[in-house]
Design goal:
about 210 residues; mainly alpha; Arc Repressor Mutant, subunit A; about 65% helix; elongated
């Protein structure tokens, strides 16, 4: 009779994800994951062919976590601002994870950028003044919002500024309104190649289910 596995694939994925939440990707090695689980590295390589396979599984878990635990916070009645503030709050409360996902580029710049753009685009139509904008203007609106949110996230997480939620909301509302009224990026889509993104709320809804 075959021996029952004591450490499963799910156990390893859970441990790897917990390690990333706690320490970012700076210690993402088989040895450190095994240490986190108090076992040898053998079960890891029995369940995953290589560390890249495990990393991609962690990426999927990370995206689900961001949608369901980070980006689902409500701070005001504007969905795009809620995403921006959730992004800023992640930098403030878990800077290791913020840097691992959005600064150090462990998953590839396209992967997390496209994921965030897709989610943010799904929220643009929460603003009635923005839902009739052409798609390139919506992309530029998200780009402008992300630039400001990243600036605030960096300054807040570094302790350079102390700013209240209401002040951040006012700044983001002003930026969004300005981008709706004025074509600040000259009606040209962002220089980043985002043409492959589909403005499809169903994809985000599937992530949230």
């Amino acid at each position: 009779m075959a021996r029952k596995k004591t450490i499963t694939r799910q156990n390893i994925l859970d441990a790897a994800f917990e390690l990333v939440l706690d320490q970012g990707f700076s210690n993402f090695t088989a040895r450190n994951i095994a240490k986190w689980m108090s076992c040898s590295t053998q079960p890891i390589y029995l369940e995953f062919s290589c560390m890249d396979e495990l990393k991609h599984a962690v990426l999927k878990r990370m995206q689900d976590y961001l949608v369901n635990e980070v980006y689902n916070q409500e701070y005001c009645d504007d969905g795009l601002i809620n995403v921006a503030l959730s992004y800023i709050n992640l930098a403030r409360t878990n800077n290791n994870l913020y840097k691992a996902v959005f600064v150090e580029d462990h998953f590839g710049v396209n992967t997390m950028r496209d994921f965030t753009y897709q989610l943010a685009l799904s929220k643009v139509d929460d603003n009635p003044a923005a839902n009739n904008l052409p798609r390139d203007r919506k992309l530029n609106l998200v780009t402008g919002c992300w630039i400001i949110a990243t600036g605030m996230a960096s300054l807040i997480s570094a302790g350079y500024i102390d700013i209240r939620k209401e002040q951040m909301i006012n700044m983001l509302k002003a930026q969004i309104q300005d981008f709706i009224e004025n074509d600040r990026l000259n009606s040209e889509p962002s220089k980043m190649n985002l043409s492959h993104l589909k403005f499809d709320n169903k994809k985000v809804s599937k992530l949230q289910s």
